[in-house]
Amino acid sequence: PREEKVSGGPVYRGRILNLRVDSVRLPDGGMTTREVVEHAPAVAVAAETEEGGLYLVRQYRYPTGEHLLEIPAGIVEEGENPVDAAARELREEIGFMPGALTEVARFYTSPGFSDELIILFHARDLSPSPKECDSDEFLDVFRFDRERLKGMAFSGEIKDSKTLTAIYWFLSR
Question: Crossing angle of helices 146-155/161-172, nearest 10°?
């Protein structure tokens, strides 16, 4: 059974997201309201080091009020191919270009209220490229081996869902 939109529309339009509020008919005929955050697709990259670990970036995330360790990631620009977006994000955030880039998974970040889709890639055979962070990004780049990644994921040090997904995928292969 599906829910059917009866009415609704945008409440807010922003640079990276929109918010809409819809009235929907439930499968049993009842009515309810759904708040939906519309978000452009994004890419995230498990960038493998020469030693078989991963690169992570540490950055302050205003909504959480914390510095978080994350894999390189960003929004797919309008008209941009996700593979090209993944390569661009690697160059911008960690200063590398991938020799090989493979799609691993696609997942919704919070499907209870958002349509944000993340496309996860695995990057190998990295070669240096000038780092070009966006003007509002202040990132520190780190390399972690498999054991340290496992420890950080299991201890709760890694709190970002896309990064946990990438680490668990990476450790399972």
Answer: 130
